[in-house]
Amino acid sequence: MPIPDGSWLRKRLLVFLARILEPRKVPHPFFRTLHELLEKEGDITLREVMDTAGEQTYGLLILVSGLTSFIPGVSIAGGLVALVLGFQLAWGIPHPWLPERLARVALHRGRVKQVLAKFEGWLLKLGRGGKPGRPLARGVMGWVIGWTAFLLALPVPPIIPLGNALPAAAICLQGAALLEERPAWAWLGVLGMVATTVYLGLSFQVIVHYLLKLVR
What we know:
Elements: H1 6-21, H2 30-38, E1 44-45, H3 46-53, H4 57-68, H5 75-90, H6 100-103, E2 106-107, H7 109-125, H8 138-153, H9 165-180, H10 183-202, H11 204-215
Antiparallel strand pairs: 1-2
């Protein structure tokens, strides 16, 4: 078997170093992607978000679902979208799917931009410039998101303060954690889920009474 000469080894070493030192394209931050969508005229649909997000589809859709749920009258729809996405994530489905009726849901750009600006401010206080941590367990995150979304989709009566805002904030944190692989944000989202569960559990009788009135 012939022994490689020095020039061959040098050539292979140069090729190896070139691959290591080759500049890689930096993916767009998720906020930039969302801002670019929101700069267009007219309303935006969830289908447009799915077509634009690429590998960030799960996290971006969940974040958008949480943001829109702060808008009065939209929390149930936002919760249903996040519920569908959470269970798909838990089952390991690589690319999310939404029923066409939900995919056509139009989002008011102006209101979403207002909520997004506030959420970005919260993230800055939480350390937006820090380095991402270890990759999150997406299956576990899927079940966490699914349960939080179920609580968000409940028709909570207006007399219960923060009944929709609390799970919506938790959904936003969970979506942002998926996008940037931030375990600290994920844990805050889990705490928000637990707090919402306890809070709505203590208000269980009020919610049941309200649902019975709706049925009648």
